[in-house]
Every structure is written in C-alpha cells, then in structure tokens.
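Here is the promised in-class demo. Please do not try to memorize the tokens; focus on the logic of going from shape to residues.
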C-alpha cells in the first residue's frame, strides 16, 4: 500500500491511498468466484463488474484507510470526505480521504500539579446555618388581619397590570405570567423584591383594600414590549401573613425528619455537608488542574470542530433557559448573546478534550468492555430503563463511542487528580464548573 499525506492549514490532512494490483486482484477473484453460479468467470467480470467493484470498495476502503492512518501515525479526529474510489486497468485501487487531525502541541509536566484546596472539615457553625435554613423552610405562616402590610410580611394578593388601558398580558403574551398579574399570588415584602418599587407601594395596605401600584420598567428591561414603559397594577390584598419560626428543639427535628432528635438531625446534616465538601474539593482539583494545563498549552482549534462544539453548546444553553421558563421569543431576542456564550463554553471544552486525550495516550489510559458495561448499567438506573434498552438506544445513535470517550476522559482526569501536589488550604475556594 502506498500512502501520501498532504498537510493543509486548520488541522486538515488529505491522504492519497493506493492499493497494489496484487492485493486488489486477490480480493477481486474471491468476489468474482462468488458469482460463479451465474456464468463463467470472463462473463462474470463483464456483466458484474460494477457489483464486484462495489463489494471491493466495502471490503478494502475501510481497512486500508485505518491501515494508512496507523502507518502515518496520524491522530485523526474525524473523516470529513472520502472521494470516489478509482480502479486501474491493472486492478490497482486508489482513493483520497480528507481528515481533521488533532492539533500538535507539547505537554508540560502534568504530574504533581500544585493545587490549593478548600477546607474539608465541617464546622459547628456550618451545621447551625444549615439547620437554620431547614427551620426557615418549616416555618408556619400566621394570619395577621388586624393591621396593614409591613416589610417582611407575606402578602397574598390579586393583581393585574396594564399600560395605557391595555393589559400587560395582551401587550407581552410571551412574557412571564408574573408580569401579567395573578390570583392569590404570594409575595414577601422586601426592598427591591419583585417588580421595581412594587413592595414599597403596598406597605400599609390592609386586608381587602385595593390600590394602584405604578411600575417603571427600565429601558434595558429584557421584555422588549415593556422596556421603558410605565405600567399600572391594580392590587387587592387577600391575606396578610407573618412567618413564625418554631423553637430549635426535638419537636422541630421530628417535624423535619420523623423519629429523629435534634442531636440526630445535627449528625445527619454534618454527614451531608461532609459529602458536599468532598465534592467541592474534587471540583476545585479539576478546576485548578485544567487552568494550569490551559495556561501552559497553546494551539489553534480546528474551525470545523469548534463550529460543531459551539452548536452543541448553544443547544444546551437554549434547553437550560427553556427549562427555567424563558420563552422562545426572549431567547430569539438574545440570540447574539447566546451564541457568544456558547462559543465561550465550546472553545475551552474542546481544548480540554484534546489535552486529556493526549495525556491518556501517553499514560496508556484505556477503556475496557467492563468500564462501558458498568456505565451503561449506571445510565440505565439513572433513567429507570432496562440495561438492554439503554444499550440498544446508545447503539442506534452511535452513542457507545461517545460513552467510551467520556469514560476515558474521566479516567484521565482521575489520574491527574490522584497525582496533584496539595499546597496550603485556602478558604473559601470557588470551584469552576467542570468542562
């Protein structure tokens, strides 16, 4: 086999692959013989030439392509084009393959990367704070109908907004329902809570009383139909409630966790916080490891792969915003910002993958069949489906290779985390989200 490689800009390489006549003839004759029941060989080659060439293409192209990559030691990331196979009169075969290759770069010393980790010990003050949050969530709300609303009260209101006599729900139908109005809407009175200056204007309002609240929307308000406009909200108070915290005792503990005392609850909270801190330590390690490597490794990302990764990141951002209730119209208005945000996520994520792949290659970190089977079982349990169904879905969507890649990158990151050099602890540490 003869292989010529032409290197082009942007991590593109073209392989000119030629198979010698003797190698092709051997396979040609084997395929031709399979047609022997239809006619004699000379007739077969004349009548079924295209079918024989198609079978040869299926049989030899994939193998020779992978052999060529191995021979030239190319780190191929994706195959972008495979030109039509040509057969010579002497039965030789040639074709061209265009591929995207991994960028070339030198790895720095990646063992004993210095990291500073947050304190992993749980303090009594942290347990107290967590217990206070639970106590707050379990608070009772007591009616106080004899007086007007005060800051920190909870008002249950009916309200409806309009601008120049037209309902906000008609002006901006895609906006959040809380901008339109609502019935029996719970609102905690606090400065700057809810709409601009809304809470301040209903202080003193009594049960059953109605008021008009004026809201001035800023010029840069995200709902363009309301930006820079002044709205009037008709507000009627239906209930006035005050939050009442229960005493910090065994009764509260039993309410929060039946059968448990306050001592038991503190122990459980401490155990949960300990696990959270362990995860925080791991996130801090990952963040600092990748920051260290990114600062010391520079290379250009293949534009085609960056475009694909940006598209994937954009899809994730859109889905995340939809899950938060952001309407599609608002997402369309923010399209430019979303694309910029996706690009800022995609580039470091793609760079991280290239770096981890190179370390995995050097350290011979591989993925076994057992690794894949274990992850499939975990994913099946996560989505509450059978292992067989999960495997079938992954196979149908070419997900097994993606799964194996995720496992390899995870194992490589675990290798790096196991070989860090821990410096003095810092408090607090803000861990970046894993790429």
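The designed amino acids, position by position:
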């Amino acid at each position: 086999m003869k292989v010529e490689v032409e290197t082009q800009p942007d991590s593109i390489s073209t392989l000119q692959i030629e198979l010698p006549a003797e190698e092709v003839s051997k396979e040609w004759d084997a395929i031709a013989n399979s047609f022997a029941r239809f006619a004699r060989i000379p007739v077969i080659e004349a009548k079924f030439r295209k079918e024989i060439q198609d079978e040869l293409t299926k049989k030899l192209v994939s193998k020779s392509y992978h052999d060529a990559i191995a021979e030239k030691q190319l780190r191929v990331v994706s195959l972008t084009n495979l030109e039509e196979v040509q057969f010579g009169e002497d039965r030789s075969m040639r074709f061209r393959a265009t591929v995207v290759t991994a960028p070339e770069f030198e790895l720095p010393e990646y063992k004993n990367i210095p990291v500073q980790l947050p304190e992993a010990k749980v303090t009594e003050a942290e347990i107290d704070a967590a217990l206070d949050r639970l106590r707050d969530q379990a608070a009772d709300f007591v009616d106080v109908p004899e007086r007007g609303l005060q800051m920190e009260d909870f008002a249950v209101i009916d309200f409806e907004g309009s601008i120049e006599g037209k309902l906000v729900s008609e002006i901006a139908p895609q906006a959040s329902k809380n901008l339109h109005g609502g019935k029996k809407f719970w609102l905690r009175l606090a400065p700057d809570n809810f709409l601009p200056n809304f809470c301040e204007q209903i202080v003193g309002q009594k049960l059953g009383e109605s008021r008009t609240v004026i809201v001035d929307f800023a010029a840069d308000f995200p709902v363009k139909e309301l930006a820079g406009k002044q709205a009037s909200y008709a507000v009627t108070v239906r209930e006035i409630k005050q939050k009442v915290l229960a005493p910090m005792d065994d009764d509260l503990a039993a309410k929060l966790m039946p059968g448990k005392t306050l001592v038991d609850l503190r122990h459980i909270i401490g155990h949960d916080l300990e696990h959270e801190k362990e995860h925080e330590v791991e996130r801090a390690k990952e963040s600092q490891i990748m920051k260290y490597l990114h600062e010391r490794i520079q290379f250009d990302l293949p534009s085609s792969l960056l475009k694909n990764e940006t598209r994937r990141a954009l899809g994730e951002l859109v889905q995340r915003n939809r899950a938060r209730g952001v309407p599609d119209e608002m997402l369309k208005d923010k399209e430019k910002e979303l694309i910029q945000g996706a690009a800022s996520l995609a580039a470091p994520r793609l760079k991280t993958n290239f770096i981890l792949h190179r370390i995995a290659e050097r350290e011979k970190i591989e993925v076994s069949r057992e690794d894949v089977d274990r992850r499939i079982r975990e994913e099946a349990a996560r989505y509450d489906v059978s292992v067989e169904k999960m495997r079938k879905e992954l196979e149908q969507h070419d997900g097994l290779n993606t799964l194996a890649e995720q496992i390899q990158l995870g194992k490589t990151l675990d290798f790096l985390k196991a070989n860090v050099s821990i410096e003095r602890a810092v408090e607090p540490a803000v861990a970046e989200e894993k790429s």
